[in-house]
Design a protein that fits this description.
This protein is of the alpha+beta class. The chain has three helices and eight strands, in the order αββαβαβββββ. About 15% of the residues lie in helices and about 20% in strands. It is elongated and about 75 Å long.
Length: about 190
């Protein structure tokens, strides 16, 4: 401009330019790609770009990535591990909301709770988590009448889709071989 060269800030133009990890065509914080065009979660750029949305818990620093590829629970668990995280282990109401916000609330999404090793028999407190922690014995968000164990192979936990069980943060015990979206958690 007027014969003087300067640095043009291209963040927010919708194209990933030099020095940017992402550019979602805005300068809004809290949507996964932050106002400085860096991902909200620090990790593999390829993994971040493959996610539907990223959310971060300001209290713990944990990040949650929602993935829209429909996969069985075991595949979702393996994918999260291969990305450097784990299938989300939800242990509070606040974390439940943050993790769910990483996904499309209009679809079911796997989280890291199951009763594959020891059948819970419909007991909401009887599900284990993928990290070997307390599972659902301290917190659960099963929807009314759930877990139902309506078939012997309803051993994995997923969010209900929003239209079915509003507001979309309630859980269901489901058949693990069904293909749902999923949420990965990262301790970064």
């Amino acid at each position: 401009t007027a014969g003087v060269c300067g640095v043009v800030n291209l963040c927010g133009n919708g194209m990933v330019d030099a020095g940017e990890q992402c550019d979602d065509n805005n300068r809004t914080d809290g949507d996964g790609c932050e106002s400085n065009c860096q991902f909200i979660c620090q990790g593999s750029v390829a993994v971040m770009r493959g996610a539907f949305r990223a959310t971060r818990d300001a209290n713990t620093g944990h990040c949650y990535l929602g993935f829209t590829q429909g996969t069985p629970w075991a595949t979702a668990r393996t994918n999260c591990t291969s990305y450097g995280g784990y299938l989300a282990v939800v242990s509070s109401s606040a974390e439940n909301t943050i993790a769910r916000n990483a996904t499309n609330v209009n679809v079911q999404a796997w989280i890291g709770l199951h009763d594959l090793d020891t059948e819970a028999n419909g007991n909401p407190a009887g599900f284990q988590d993928v990290l070997g922690g307390p599972g659902t014995s301290t917190y659960n968000s099963f929807g009314g009448g759930e877990p139902s164990n309506s078939t012997p192979d309803e051993d994995c936990v997923a969010y209900f889709e929003s239209p079915f069980r509003p507001p979309g943060t309630t859980w269901n015990d489901a058949v693990c071989s069904l293909s749902y979206h999923y949420v990965c958690e990262f301790n970064n």
